[in-house]
Amino acid sequence: MVHDVEEVFLALDEEIAVFKTRTSLSCKSGCGKCCLKPDIEATVLEFIPFAYHLYKQGKAIEWLENPSLSNALCSILDSNLPGVGHCTSYNHRGMICRLFGFSAKLNKYGSKELITCQVIKTEQPEAFLTAYAETMAGSPTPLMRDYYMKMYGVDWELSQKFYPINTAIRKAIETVLHYYAYREEEGVVVTE
Ligand code: SF4
Question: Whose C-alpha lies nearest to ligand 1, atom 1?
């Protein structure tokens, strides 16, 4: 499951890289504003790689006791983190974190509509308007629906319900801990 989700992320990251090169749209260095939204929603499945990463480090149970899991803001966020972003586990961030800013949704007419942030719209207006028009005209842009469909294919149960981001993270950690607890109980040796 972890590997399958990472495969979806890899395909998405590659498609976004092509889109960014074509449109020259990019995040503002050091921004992280999108992570400061209090109502981010995510699925459990997209945080299974993060939960597995914690498990491998022996930090999964400790993270469940992390008080920031009850906050509205993402518990992986550290707005004091020095450097270009505020995500403390960027390689294991969720799919919503990857999609936001550089993907499209289908509008009620069935046309692709680019979804991006206010910072990009206001600080890169020309590139944004060009990318928006090109996307509407059918130019290749990562489509949110396509990637959620890929996740349904990995695990329907863990991918079709959206939760507040910290609830999704908590449930992902519990899922991984349960998986290994059950196998240890059954004396099953879990290989990589
Ligand atoms: S996982 Fe990282 S990128 Fe995603 S909302 Fe949290 S801090 Fe931001």
Answer: 93
